[in-house]
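How it folds:
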Amino acid sequence: MTESNTQSLTDDLGFSADSGQENVRGNRLGAFLAAVRSWFRAWRRTRPFWGALWLIVAGAWIIYWMSFDIGIALTGGWSYSAGYVMGGALIMFGLVTWLAPHYKSLSGIVAFLIALGAFPTANLGGFVLGSVLGIIGGAMVWSWGEKKPRPPKRVTSGG
């Protein structure tokens, strides 16, 4: 990128040092992005975000490493469909944990058990990594303690 392209990009995002009238749109976008980031941080602090994320990644990893088409998995019985069921359950419990954090104890313990069950049934739980991520994620969800959202920072005028 050239210097002018970089300057144009920073102006559009509201990170320019100039305070002219042409930066009004950029400042609005910057303020909007700051408000979205602040909202996301407050939302993330009130639920077991990282444990649920590990559960979702573990489920996706287990499903990814299944070596059967979905058609064979549906007609072939449990040994063919176990990875899809176990991985889908881990993804589901990760999403439940994000959307309804008051079920964290139930979803954490059940996800932990599903990750343990995926080890012998679904290609060693996605070649061990899926099971390990699921076990860590389930333990993180189950042991999470709720934090209150931080109050907004008070801006004081220097005087």
User: Anything to note?
Assistant: Residues 68 and 80 are 7 Å apart (CA to CA). The longest helix spans residues 24-45. The mean pLDDT is 83.
